[in-house]
Amino acid sequence: MIGGHMGQVLWVDLASGRLWAETPDEAIYRDFLGGYGFGARILYERQRSGVDPLGPEAILGFNTGVLVGSPAITPNRWTVTGKSPLTGGWGDANCGGYWGPMLKAAGYDAVYVQGCAERPVYLWIDEGQATLRDASDLWGRDALETEALLRERHPGAQVACIGPAGERLSCISGVVNDFGRIAARSGLGAVMGSKRLKAIVVRGTRPYPMADPARAQAERKRALAEMARNPRVKYFTKYGTINHTASSAFSGDSPIKNWAGVGLEDFPQAERISDDNMIALEYKGYGCWKCNIACGGHYRTDDPVFATPSTHKPEYETSAMFGNNLLNDNIHSLLKANDLCNRYGLDTISTGSTIAFAFDCYQHGILTAADTDGLELRWGDPHAIIALLHKIGRREGIGDVLADGTAKAAARIGRGAEQLAVHIGGQEPPAHDPRFAPSWGLIYAADATPGRHTQLAAYLLETGSQLPGLDLPAVEKYTYTGKGEVNALLNNLGQALFSAGICFFAATRVSFGHWPEMISAVTGLEYTVERLAACGARSAAVRTMFSVREGASPLQYHLAPRAYGRPPLQSGPLANVTVDVETLRHEYYLARGWDPATALPRPETLAALGLGDLPLPTATR
Fold first, then answer.
1. How far apart are CA 519 and CA 5, in angstroms?
2. Can you say whether the dihedral through the CA atoms of 261, 267, 272, 274 is positive or negative?
3. Is the same domain home to 36 and 185?
4. Could you report the per-residue pLDDT of 218-265, keeping only the tens digit for each?
5. Which of 351, 347, 356, 327 has the alpha carbon at shortest distance from 417?
6. Does residue 621 register a pLDDT over 70?
7. Strand 110-114 vs strand 9-13: parallel, antiparallel, or unpaired?
8. Are residues 182 and 251 in the same domain?
9. Which DSSP string do the residues of 275-305 spell out, in sequence order?
10. Which residues 6+ apart lie within 8 Å of 556 measured at CB?
């Protein structure tokens, strides 16, 4: 087995209780680097099309990447993969912390789970030995309580689990580790809940296999020295992503009032929940495993109404969705909302967006107090926000209507609610407006997981950023032609790094040459930028083929009109902007060697990527 991988994948059949290890073909490791690319390749072959994502035939994967556990910068991201109950297509979500490296140290590169248990269970992996344990005493407990109990039961272990939202099959629930870090998107917590799998607990001490440890350590030392000189790294260590909550509200980057407002006009008080006002509530810094950036933090507030003894630093997405988009300037309620989402196991992007949708429906008379269990949903009311969040987490009353996200809620409510539902392909978009950086709008509309903002694309260039070490062309923000090649290249490189298990923020803060050099050192195979791009192209192809096979082609995605400027805003920095997403997507597919009429790779493209053995699905439009 090439370096960087343990060479073993654990399979679990919850219906029969059978557990077994497999050794995947070395080519899959080499060509996909792990992560969601590896997971897509496995599931495309092993799971038949058309399965119910919440049924026993659905396979749920927990994947690490080639660099997880390595001396690379931020080598700790793991990915949960499967068919999304939220979108009906490919689903993946990744998370940092300590769980991914520990899974590898326990002897496995990935775990795949099929079937449904008769009663709640958890999977215990200790130094390569796996057993299923009864979890009846854990069922119903929140994710943080569950982790604490399992860590006490298994000292030195790391825990990935679901909260009550996943148990209740909420399609906006995720998988929680490190007491509140969540692999949140795609609704895969509900898949775990449908299998009655409460947690996967891992412990191990096996060494990470490297072909050339000296070369890898030298490259880490070089990269650390480079980042120590980078003021952007020091700034990010202090603030993380919360430094731009207010500035994004004012620039138009952040959604306001369910994507229909203008920050300068509707939410001029955004600074109350941003930057140093948020930092003032931090009592301890936090970093993921072997991360030199350490952008996280532990926060608390003793506010008499929204007291929160301890929670992770709210990310920008959380602050924007529970703050800007709801016109909520109560910073204490943001910490409370963050803590509750962590405990219930809810995606803060989808949950905050769904609450904004409910508020909008209330303001338009589509929902009344009779529908909302007596709650008056008025913009900016933190008490109503927190009350509605509890109802969603518990699936109580109106919360049961909203617990599966905006698209499904709008279909249940009817009466014109669909016009106010902001989603892309069934998933709520993040707090970055396509009208502010159109290539975000492209990726939202073209990735196999719709509304995914962390896939790399030319929005980096449109917003004035760069990838150090790559010679990329300048682009004009609102010019829609001529961006296909750079969008495809950046996206391929991003998909390769994220499959390898690297953090988005490190990928953009160290010279890009660090990554092929480190992968070469640990694997013993020589990787270049071009070879990484090919790995990412394979991931993109198989993930999209999976979605198309399931009837969830990107060409069929509902694209929220508000988010694309249809109709355009009449004031503010994004006034009169309408995003030409069709031109962007058409050229992006051509640059990939995909057919723009089907959103599928052409046969010759698959052959060039070494994927000619995979059958192309039948495309519909």
1. 11
2. positive
3. yes
4. 999 999 999 999 998 999 999 999 999 999 999 999 999 999 999 999
5. 356
6. no
7. parallel
8. no
9. HHHHHTTEEEEE--TT-SS--EEEEEE--TT
10. 425, 620, 621
